[in-house]
Amino acid sequence: MQFMLLFSRQGKLRLQKWYVPLSDKEKKKITRELVQTVLARKPKMCSFLEWRDLKIVYKRYASLYFCCAIEDQDNELITLEIIHRYVELLDKYFGSVCELDIIFNFEKAYFILDEFLLGGEAQETSKKNVLKAIEQADLLQENFSSQSPHNCLSTP
Amino acid sequence: MSDVVEKTLTALPGLFESQTGAAKITNRLRQLIKSITELTSKHEEENLIKRELSAIKEQVSSPNTTMKQMREIMVRAMYCEMLGYDASFTYIHAIKLAQQGGVLEKRVGYLAVSLFLNEGHELLLLLVNTVLKDLQSTNLIEVCMALTVVAQVFPKDMIPAVLPLVEDKLSHPKEIIRRKAVLALYKFYLIAPNQVQHIHAKFCKALSDKDPGVMASSLHIYLQLIRESPDSYKDLTGSFVTILKQVLGGKLPVDFNYHSVPAPWLQIQLLRILSLLGKEDQSTSELMYEVLDESLRRAEMNHNITYAILYECVKAVYTIHPKAELLEKAARCIGNFVLSPKINLKYLGLKALTYVVQHDAKLALQHQMTIIECLDHSDFTIKRETLELLFRITNAQNVTVIVEKMLDFLCYVPIKTLTFAPDNSWFIQTMNDVFSIGGDLLQQDVPNNFLRLLAEGKPEEDDQLRLYAVESYLTVLKGHTSHLPQCFLQVMSWVLGEYAHLQESVDRREVIRLLTQLLDQRSVSSETRVWILSALTKIPEGQTDLILDLAESLSSSQDTVLRQQAQELRHLSQDSQLREWVLVENSCAVDSSLSFLDGFVSEALAAGAAPYKPPHQRQEELSLNLEPYSFSLPVSLSSCSITDRQSPTLLSVSSGLSGNSAELSTLILEGVKRVWGKDGYLPQKEATAPPVDEPSAAVQPASQQEAAERIEPRPEPSTQNQDKQQLASSLFVGLGVGSSVSLLGKSEAPPPRFRKKPRPHESSSSSGTSKRSSDSSSHSSRNTTDSFLYGSFPEEEPATSISTFDHTPKSTTANGLSQNKDTKEDRHANTSQILGGDMVIVRPSTIQDKHPPSVSSDLTALLPADLKDLPHSDVISLTSDPSLSLSSCRLFRDEALLLVIFISNCTETVIKDVAVQLTCEELKVCTGNVMDCLEARSTSVCHYALLMDDPHTNVSLTGTVSYQTQPGHTNTLPFSGTLSTADFIRPLVVTTEEYGKLWLSLSHDVKQNLKLLTDAGDPLRTTLNALKDALQLHVVDIIGSEGIVACRLLSGAPCLLHCRVNGAALAMWLRSPHPALPDFILYHCQRALAHH
């Protein structure tokens, strides 16, 4: 995977993860073009599009678009499921996640993503394991700041 | 900002109080986000962020800032960067945070580093020591964080420094550490392969790791290694096969299941590796046949994830040394993809076919009809993939058809390039290629759009583009020109005529010479000559001698148009005053609001003219009925009835029962059975129309089977179908064993008579498996994340046609050509184009005569007893041929419009297997009706209930009736008709009070002045009565000069009309909860009054 973008229906970027080295200018340009292209697509259209020499796989969840760029030989359907698994992870972590959770706790969303994908490849596909790792790091955080446990984690 | 955000913001304080600790720290972030959501403009946001960033700057440089505060600052900085603002001054602090902070701060610091810095960023060097230290930490979390950052951003030349430490981690007791280490090494391998060569043995250990996660991670490396040199890893084939077997056998922990499919990511990775290993290697391939077979068999559950695996499996089967049995199974799988109604799967199916036809071109044959349909698909992605597929099956016999299709496709290129063109020269160059290669095969709108793009640009911004075009065309014209397509020559001459003057350095004489030279060429068509001459006209004066010579030589031309133009040219070049007057130099100011027409408009409106409607509201109102003998149902509208046949392809996409159209509208079948069933109504001539026991029995077994095989039934008029079949045979010629053998796969193209939609119960049994399992899969996924994310799926947007650049001509220059290029008819008719003036000859479009309706009013007597009392329209003839004649009648039921079709046998013999099929694009309904036989001289009745959920001005119906006069000889008779919204409007009976309440609750309103009928007594009452008669409105009350009227769309959205006499006009104010309904009702009111 080359990069992953999360943006809202209004075209606001909510999360960006780049797995290939690109200049800031390039990143901004890509983001702008892609957001425009994806938002212009109709709901019944297929979730893939060819863009430059990449394949874009996107899916909309409520008001958020999840958008991944993969290479041509990669499998589009499994990428869709990667997106879905990430959403499931977010959902489990935040407890029925919504766009606001991601806006206000975007660093958490990044931590989860890093635990799930590493260097653009699926690192750990077991939901339990990913959340366990995050939980451990969070717990540490709690110990350090000696605060009560994060209530988001309490409910499965 | 979205409403959701705004609404939820008010609830925020509560939300955050419930969260604890960690949340408090990012309080400032919350304030920042909150204030951003309150802003209204981009400018305000910029100011706010600027302030925020300077505050951050101050804080980070202050010595008193604690690490904890720094962490919070860093999060804000990340947020600002995400919004697109530069916070590069914080980068160094991110590194410091990772270096000096506690675990808590480190985590944020590392995250910030990985987000801010690229692999090549120099600041990363400062991170190396921190990473080294953390890798050796006893705190697992710190080690994890260090490995994560190493696997994301790490300077290439510093790899040797950390490599030994990362290698060590491969034997770490914790699997999470081993896993991350493997991925870090994978990353190292990608950026510096030679540095990790020596640790292959360790990769091998990772592959045999007891933890499946670590093993799965090692496959990334192996895939890469094997891709580069498959031969070195053949000995591992057995291991990979064993692993895959274990995965398939469910030997992995349940945690690795994804929607009850065992470790799909792992499976796909293994399949990819196996296909690389087995490629062109029979003995290795033999090792994997069994497991591939099992994989194909296992992946039967109908969920995206199994399709993902299947796709990879099919690819593997076709990549390795072939085995007939597997190939056959894989080909079947591809069929499932291609025929799937799910567009994503269809796409994958096309992609798989594209891959597979390289090995076996015949496979494309089976799916040719699907491929043809995909060629016309509205989704660009699908279309592209289809062309890719066609490209692969090009051979000597079909090359011309395929290339033509590809050139058709080229017309999308310009539209796309408009938005993405990186620079002017590339754009012009690409367009030159398109024009010279595509040439006259291009659709006319390609050059039109291109010229419009040039013409509409702002003088300052786009002069460069124009200049470049001029320059490039001059170069082209100086070369060999005889092979250039006419449309390219036309484009060039227009551009030179308009913009040659922009280029100071260009000698005008040179331009004139080049253009004149073109005129001398034999290959140049007379139409192009007209373009060239008009270009010459526009080139500013001063070169009178050349022009006069030219005019002289042309004055004896055979072509009258050219002679005339030459004459004009001469006059213009001699009379500079006339010239100035005719050809206004450059940019005349364009009043784009057309305010100078205001007076005219209000006058026209007052006189009862229809108000202007933007194209999106207009729908098809303005297109002309170009189809001969097409029939329009509403007689009152026949003078300008619309049967829009421009996009027949849409029909083929509509599939009434394929699931997703259920919510749109339905065609109720109940009536059919009543007419034809045992206890049903029998028409007058009882003996001649025997009842049919079971309608479905009339469907022959073959057609049932077909219906079952066809996952997506595609009802379409047979003529269109024939077109497609023709196209298919030309596209797929040469692929079969003998190219003359029937090219249509049996299950692909049944004769039109069999194109009957499966009844609901049939379809559920035929595609039941797919339906059920997709239901269950979506259900299961809902269970896991049901609450929010699935709460609101994207709302369905009404299907609108893709807007093209058509029909918005703007003339920016004062000559006829800019209009000519948009007026297609002129070109087709080859009408002479008058130059210099603003005139364009517009041919009156001839409307074809309607088929004379042979109305037989007594047919209404045949209506079923329970329908007889309903208000109905006149019976009108739909179509007829010597043996059969069809008439129809509309019955207005409260909740639906009933369309009754009378089928009369005009012959003295029995007509068998009469099947009526009705399709309606806007209503997305279609159904079939088959009867065994129709006795001589008898008439049968069938009726359809039509529902309209979204108003359309006019709805066109098309259908076919097929029948057999002799066994085995099927005749098909197409028919079409139009329904108007007026047919779907029903009176809404309310009291004045109810009306008042309702009025206040409705949101969408439209106001308009209408014509007031003044011919009799009370103008208001007369007008309202006229409207009531024409449109079935309910007049609620009339008080003085005001009247209130109510109606609704069938039993759906109401529309309230408030009418007031305003001088000589009727001021009408319409309100409805439906955004488009008032417009449509207004439109019909206007029509009704105009026709009164």
TrEMBL record, chain A:
Pfam families tied to this protein: Clat_adaptor_s
Gene Ontology cellular-component terms listed: AP-1 adaptor complex; clathrin-coated pit
Keyword Protein transport annotated: yes
CDD domains: AP1_sigma (cd14831)
Membrane topology: Peripheral membrane protein
Domain AP complex mu/sigma subunit: 1-140
Major localization class: membrane
PROSITE patterns: CLAT_ADAPTOR_S (PS00989)
Biological process per Gene Ontology, one example term: intracellular protein transport
Top-level taxon in the UniProt lineage: Eukaryota
GO molecular function, one term: clathrin adaptor activity
UniProt xrefs under InterPro entries: AP1_sigma (IPR044733), AP_complex_ssu (IPR016635), AP_mu_sigma_su (IPR022775), Clathrin_sm-chain_CS (IPR000804), Longin-like_dom_sf (IPR011012)
Keyword entries, A-Z: Coated pit, Cytoplasmic vesicle, Golgi apparatus, Membrane, Protein transport, Transport
Role this protein plays: Subunit of clathrin-associated adaptor protein complex 1 that plays a role in protein sorting in the late-Golgi/trans-Golgi network (TGN) and/or endosomes. The AP complexes mediate both the recruitment of clathrin to membranes and the recognition of sorting signals within the cytosolic tails of transmembrane cargo molecules.
Complex and partners: Adaptor protein complex 1 (AP-1) is a heterotetramer composed of two large adaptins (gamma-type subunit AP1G1 and beta-type subunit AP1B1), a medium adaptin (mu-type subunit AP1M1 or AP1M2) and a small adaptin (sigma-type subunit AP1S1 or AP1S2 or AP1S3). Binds to MUC1.
Protein name in UniProt: AP complex subunit sigma
Source organism per UniProt: Cyprinus carpio carpio
TrEMBL record, chain B:
Spans annotated as Disordered: 684-726, 743-836
Gene3D superfamilies for this protein: Leucine-rich Repeat Variant
Keywords: Golgi apparatus, Membrane, Protein transport, Transport
GO biological process assignments: intracellular protein transport; vesicle-mediated transport
Residue ranges occupied by any AP-4 complex subunit epsilon-1 C-terminal domain in the UniProt entry: 986-1090
Record localization: Endomembrane system
Membrane among keywords: yes
Keyword NAD included in the entry's annotation: no
Listed SUPFAM superfamilies: ARM repeat
Domain of life from the UniProt record: Eukaryota
Pfam families hit by this protein: Adaptin_N, AP4E_app_platf
Any one cellular-component term (Gene Ontology): endomembrane system
Polar residues compositional bias, start-end: 800-820
Primary location group: membrane
Topology within the bilayer: Peripheral membrane protein
Subunit structure: Adaptor protein complex 4 (AP-4) is a heterotetramer composed of two large adaptins, a medium adaptin and a small adaptin.
Similarity section: Belongs to the adaptor complexes large subunit family.
Functional summary from the UniProt entry: Subunit of novel type of clathrin- or non-clathrin-associated protein coat involved in targeting proteins from the trans-Golgi network (TGN) to the endosomal-lysosomal system.
Name of protein: AP-4 complex subunit epsilon
Species the sequence originates in: Cyprinus carpio carpio
